[in-house]
Specification:
The chain contains 14 helices and 13 strands. The chain is of the alpha+beta class and 395 residues long. The strands form 5 sheets. The protein has a 5-stranded mixed beta sheet with strand order 1-2-3-5-4, sandwiched between helices. The protein has a two-stranded antiparallel ribbon with strand order 6-7. α9 (207-227) packs across α12 (260-272). The longest helix has 21 residues, at 35-55. Residues 1-20 have low confidence and may be disordered.
Length: 395
């Protein structure tokens, strides 16, 4: 396992608004977190960079400069750091930035929590990688769609698992499409950065759909119809990296500019794509963890999954799993099937939720999912200020 070369003298000098820098395999690190907290975050981001480099190995390297990773314990230090780079990061969970000779990605731990921070660093980390390794001029739909795709990646036993679609992620796209809220592919694929950003910043009710639909289109192009379009999609990206205009790049890669057949195939993919068991289990465990944390604040400790279901339904519990921008998945105790075990891996039989009583009184029970190729579970701990937090662990 790679370990950060954290320098004790530097760490002693860390303060909330100006943190000392150390290095990982791919990044210059700026953090005010103690080594025990910073190390697993940086290892994960390094592993993400490795996964991206492997996936896009044929694209070369457009920028040999060292990249920056800035991760802070609190939002105030994050905002202050980016102000120093000339960036107003108000109302952001994290971002990719280019400031003079520096290019980097930044986020913070509190108050958003570690799960959203990880997703944000993966999403924004793709934007950084795309800017330096593929092209700074990717069409916004493919840039954001791929960022969502990699943002959803699961860090399992020191490697990234990519490409899975959770039942809840699929449901969001299916619901939007059935309600007529998705965009015609011609409109989505021709949208400019300015048009996209205006929709997001003005609170356009379809802003979240932009991210979900772009994710689904990328997922289709990489995995739909047994990977039929994956090579064409990569050729499309490679042509853009050479400076070909997006319309012309699409025509070269797919042999047409007519999106009729692609729209029909993508729509079928939305309606028929099978949810991934591990990705679904992870979404559901995040839902249960938020519910357990809320009950714990009220001194309620469920002794079984049935009791947890009863308590959350009585309170009409709902949680929004937010991405780094407009994308989100809303899960509610009243949703049909939310307490059902996730779909099983092929040839592995049944899955089940197991609620386990806590080893100590100051944390809620844990839940794990059995019957999958790896066993995800909720892992509780207290941060340095005593706040309850969790992460999903994979054994």
């Amino acid at each position: 396992m790679n370990r950060l070369r954290l320098i004790a003298a530097s760490l002693c000098a860390l303060i909330a608004s100006a943190a000392a820098g150390v290095s990982s395999r791919h990044y210059e690190i700026i953090t005010d977190l103690p080594p025990r907290d910073a190390e697993p975050i940086v290892e994960r981001v390094d592993a993400m960079h490795d996964a991206l480099a492997k996936r896009f190995a044929s694209f070369g390297h457009n920028n040999a400069k060292r990249l920056h990773l800035a991760v802070f314990a609190e939002i105030d230090a994050y905002l202050a750091h980016l102000r120093g780079e000339g960036i107003d990061a108000t109302n952001t969970a994290g971002l990719f930035y280019v400031s003079g000779p520096n290019a980097g990605v930044a986020s913070y731990l509190e108050p958003q929590g570690i799960a959203r921070m990880h997703s944000t660093l993966q999403h924004e980390g793709f934007h950084l990688f795309a800017h330096t390794h593929i092209s700074p001029d990717l069409p916004v739909w493919v840039n954001e769609g791929l960022a969502e795709y990699f943002g959803d990646g699961l860090f399992v036993k020191e490697r990234f698992v990519l490409g899975g679609a959770s039942a809840d992620r699929i449901h969001e796209v299916q619901t939007a499409h059935a309600a007529g809220k998705t965009f015609p592919l011609e409109e989505l694929m021709s949208m400019t950065n300015a048009e996209w950003n205006t929709a997001v910043r003005t609170g356009d009710p379809r802003a979240g759909v932009l991210y979900d639909q772009s994710w689904s289109l990328v997922h289709f192009l990489l995995h739909g119809q047994r990977g039929k379009h994956a090579d064409r999609f990569e050729n499309y990206l490679r042509a853009i990296a050479r400076g070909v205009t997006p319309d012309r790049a699409f025509e070269q890669a797919f042999g047409t500019r007519d999106l009729t057949a692609l729209t029909r195939s993508w729509t079928n993919h939305i309606e028929t794509v099978e949810p991934d068991a591990l990705f679904t289990a992870t979404d559901r465990l995040r839902f249960f963890a938020e519910g357990l944390a809320g009950l714990h604040e009220r001194d309620v400790t469920p002794a079984s999954m049935e009791e947890l279901e009863d308590q959350l339904k009585r309170r009409s519990f709902r949680v929004v799993i937010s991405g780094s921008h407009g994308s989100s998945r809303s899960l509610a105790a009243a949703d049909e099937g939310i307490f059902d075990a996730p779909p099983a891996d092929r040839r592995r039989g049944r899955t089940a939720y197991e609620l386990r009583r806590p080893a100590q009184r100051d944390v809620p029970p844990s839940i794990r999912v059995t019957g999958l190729r790896t066993t995800p579970s909720i892992e509780w701990h207290r941060d340095r200020d005593g706040r309850l937090t969790y992460q999903i662990r994979y054994d």
